[in-house]
Specification:
about 200 residues; mainly beta; Immunoglobulin-like; seven-stranded antiparallel sheet; four-stranded antiparallel sheet
Length: about 200
């Protein structure tokens, strides 16, 4: 086998390994219009995903919006004035009074060796004590909001969850949520935009 083919094969193996490692800790139910996650706070709907890299550590982030059963069965379609949302054929225009945002992060080495076992405390110093700044953005207007509460959850393993409770009364469903996260004392910063238009990209 020549060198080029060997490199291609190794790249495919590493990519498959990363996908399997990232995907395995996540419990999701796919619907025709969304990816949902059942939590103690209600049904969460996936609104963003991204990979954040810090040196040789890759953090796969998924953002879920949660508020009781508000998002269960929520549908988005294109109307005359842009995206419009409905539940059971009833139009919905605004977020509920409060929103729980689940910033779900799964850590992994970006370039693991084949068959390498990642210890359950891997990247603990990177992920512990992550901080967040959030703002609602609609059109040209951006409004910073202060979380009402926040909670970090981590059991032994590669997955971390950060739950942020935000005020969201009368915020249009067409608005995006911009999440600025700080890892390891802000040695690594990342910005992720989450919004319900993500449903149309499924």
């Amino acid at each position: 086998m020549n060198r080029v083919m060997r490199k291609r094969r190794n790249a495919v193996v590493v990519a498959a390994f990363l996908f399997t490692s990232f995907a395995s800790p996540v419990t999701e139910a796919k619907t025709p219009h969304s990816v949902v996650k059942e939590t103690e706070f209600g049904t969460g709907i996936k609104t963003a995903s991204a990979i954040v890299q810090y040196h040789n550590t890759c953090v796969w982030v998924q953002i879920f919006f949660i508020s009781g059963q508000f998002f269960k069965g929520l549908r988005v379609s294109e109307g005359p004035a842009g995206p419009q949302f409905s539940t059971n054929k009833t139009l919905v225009e605004s977020f509920p009074e409060r929103l729980i945002v689940d910033f779900e992060a799964t850590v992994q080495k970006c370039n693991p060796r084949i068959n390498e076992i990642i210890p359950p405390d891997y990247a603990t110093s990177l992920m512990t004590g992550a901080t967040f700044e959030v703002s609602w953005r609609g059109g040209q207007e951006t409004r910073t909001v202060r979380p009402l509460s926040s909670e970090e959850r981590h059991r032994p393993g590669l997955r971390w969850d950060y739950f942020l409770e935000l005020p969201s009364k009368n915020v249009p469903l067409t608005n995006d949520l911009v999440i600025e996260t700080c890892l390891r004392g802000c040695l690594k910063r990342a910005s992720i935009t989450a919004g319900l238009d993500f449903l149309n990209r499924k």
